[in-house]
Design goal:
2 helices
């Protein structure tokens, strides 16, 4: 096993905490649903971006084409 460790806190907790504080404090009384929809969209896009970057880096490392049925031609 490697000696690497994960981060204790994820940066995605910051927007969640901000929306939570806005809703609980009463500063955004009528827009709770809108804030939660925006937060959900933002976090979904962040997860998709993370997945694309991981697949791209792994495919570059292993010299493979992701989601392709044809083998790359040797250059």
């Amino acid at each position: 096993m490697s000696s690497t460790r994960c981060q204790p806190l994820n940066w995605m907790l910051l927007p969640i905490a901000a929306v939570l504080l806005l809703v609980v404090s009463g500063l955004a009384p009528g827009s709770e649903t809108l804030l939660l929809y925006l937060l959900t969209a933002f976090l979904t896009l962040a997860h998709i971006h993370y997945g694309v970057v991981v697949v791209s880096q792994l495919s570059r490392h292993f010299n493979i084409r992701p989601f392709s049925l044809r083998k790359p031609t040797p250059d």
